[in-house]
Design goal:
Layout (H helix, E strand, L loop, with lengths): L15 E3 L2 E4 L2 H12 L4 H15 L9 E7 L4 E6 L9 H8 L19 H12 L4 H14 L1 E2 L2 H14 L5 H5 L11 E2 L2 H13 L8 H12 L6 H5 L4 E3 L2 E5 L2 E5 L6 H11 L12 H21 L10 H4 L2 H8 L19 E8 L5 E9 L7 E2 L4 E2 L29 E5 L2 E9 L3 H15 L4 H6 L3 E5 L2 E5 L4 H9 L3 E5 L2 H4 L2 E7 L8 E5 L6 E4 L1
């Protein structure tokens, strides 16, 4: 790919070139990963160190109570890891009906009845055991040091922290852990998380056993029981992450790979499969026609994803049927270039997620994502070990259908790492975090790179839109004004937002330029977060 390195968008960032690299949404996490590479570790070691550090430095998006997914190229083939945790054994439809009434449609948004078993720590252990080089405990040392010593709050993290405080401040353990001095920290203030350091040390020393059924799981069980929850140490102990084969879809000679359901990555594959039926590159990159076409393709994909995607064993329609070329061509024919349409998609909530990627000079590339779901997740934080618990249970339905809650079942998931290949060889490890923005970000950035030749940093910096429901979208203020006006004339209900940090995702990209020992990688980090590419 011959990229145009003129960046037409407002940004002070340029691509970073390195033979060993990590890209994260927080500089201290990037440095943690780089430290492992300097010590002779590989990209998996670096990614785990980054992920552990991110659980400390960006608690607004993830924590030790998160889920995680990974796609990695080991130098020869592609692997997928689904480390999303299931519902507690006590969770049935009747359990929620008794507590929240017959009219409840989903488990609650916050509190212990939104907490599913966390899978992130298990993903670190599984990745380390299968692909890592360094001792597992060493990978957590940077995060332990950061948690004990503390760090100074950056701008975007502080904004999200302050925004979440009014809703979450009264939930069990939240104020004790995240509201020092009775309020959210201010930009530049020192935040220490010594309870989480205690947890990380126990996790490192036991290779995760303390977390799954050991002292940490016991502490969570006791804390849950004291606050109306039903999750138990046995629920933790029964969890195992699942190695899976990524699913893929060809686009412009490349193949995009995603984790198969229960996640929403298939939405990006479907949208690109629909766009294959159009000459996108003939349309001006930031013009109304190109943006309208992408919006409509994304809406069509979401309409099916929200209807059919769940844990694979309960799906009524299989992924291969949803990705069939003939079917996607028939969906493409529904697009009217002159008007916006409501294809009946749902109304997904906003999310809180971290994405990171790492690559080394031996060719290993790691695409990793970790999330507490909605900001700080459930808002419940076990205080002894600082376990900030996710609220993935809110993604279940209490109504009949493939995503109905059941004991030991995994919910519909929003977090999706991505990987790009060409002719069976690795090209790019990447992701764009942020609720239902993730497949939208995958599609929008890939269209810019593969149809228009924009380099990853320019594609990352470019203005984005975000589909919500019906004909409603949000648009960044940088999106061309004439394009916005034309979209509105076609029936799109466009709300232009000035705050890009909350609604439009944030990506990290590592593009393989050739032989990693010679040409290395071209790397990018999204300006919508406090991120950094670090490499050598």
């Amino acid at each position: 790919m011959n990229f145009d390195f003129h960046n037409p968008y407002p940004s002070v960032r340029l691509p970073v070139f390195a033979r060993n690299a990590v890209s994260t949404s927080h500089p201290l996490a990037a440095q943690a990963g780089l430290r492992m590479l300097w010590q002779g570790g590989n990209a998996v070691d670096a990614a785990i160190a980054c992920a552990a550090a991110m659980s400390i430095v960006e608690p607004v998006s993830n924590g030790l109570g998160s889920d995680a997914f990974c796609i990695l190229w080991d130098g020869k083939e592609l692997h997928g890891l689904n480390s999303s945790g299931p519902a507690p054994a006590s969770w049935t439809v009747d359990y929620f009906r008794r507590k929240y009434g017959a009219d409840a449609k989903t488990p609650p948004k916050r509190g212990f009845d939104s907490v599913t078993v966390p899978g992130a720590v298990a993903s670190w252990v599984a990745l380390s055991e299968r692909f890592g080089k360094l001792p597992f405990a060493d990978l957590l040392e940077p995060a332990i040091e950061i948690a004990e010593r503390g760090y100074l709050l950056p701008v975007v993290v502080q904004q999200k922290w302050a925004d979440a405080t009014p809703e979450l401040g009264s939930l069990p353990g939240f104020a004790q852990s995240f509201l020092p001095w009775g309020r959210a920290p201010k930009v530049g203030e020192l935040f220490q998380f010594k309870a989480a350091a205690r947890a990380l040390r126990a996790i490192g020393q036991t290779k995760g056993a303390a977390f799954y059924g050991g002292e940490i799981a016991q502490a969570v069980e006791q804390f849950a029981a004291a606050n109306g929850g039903s999750i138990t140490a046995r629920d933790f102990a029964s969890f195992k992450p699942e190695w899976v084969k990524p699913i893929g879809k060809e686009y412009r000679g490349y193949t995009l790979h995603e984790i198969p359901p229960n996640g929403q990555g298939i939405a990006a594959l479907m949208a690109l499969g629909i766009l294959k039926n159009f000459d996108v590159a003939s349309l001006p990159v930031d013009g109304a026609d190109s943006q309208h076409l992408q919006i409509e393709a994304m809406k069509l994909a979401f309409a099916d994803v929200y209807r059919y995607v769940s844990e694979p064993r309960t799906m009524e329609v299989m992924p291969q049927q949803m990705l069939d070329d003939g079917y996607l061509a028939s969906r493409a024919r529904l697009i009217d270039m002159k008007r916006a349409q409501d294809f009946g998609a749902g109304n997904p909530v906003k999310g809180g997620t971290i994405y990171l990627t790492a690559a080394d000079e031996n060719g290993m590339m790691v695409s990793f994502i970790q999330s507490n779901y909605m900001g700080f997740g459930s808002g419940c934080v076990e205080p002894t070990f600082g376990i900030s618990l996710q609220n993935r249970g809110h993604g279940f339905s209490l109504q009949d259908g493939p995503n109905q809650v059941a004991p030991g079942k995994r919910p519909f998931h929003t977090i999706i790492p991505a990987f790009l290949s060409k002719d069976g060889q690795p090209v790019m490890s990447f992701g764009v975090m942020g609720g239902n923005m993730q497949p939208q970000g995958h599609m929008q950035t890939l269209v810019r790179m593969l149809d228009y030749g924009q380099n990853p940093q320019a594609a990352c910096d470019a203005p984005r839109w975000r589909f919500n429901q019906g004909v409603g979208i949000n648009a960044e203020r940088q999106l061309d004004g004439e394009t916005v006006r034309t979209l509105m004339e076609r029936g799109h209900r466009v709300e232009v937002l000035n705050d890009s940090y909350q609604d439009f995702g944030a990506g990290q990209f590592i593009w393989r330029a050739g032989d990693p020992k010679v040409e290395g990688y071209l790397c990018a980090s999204d300006p919508r977060r406090d991120g950094l590419v670090a490499g050598f």
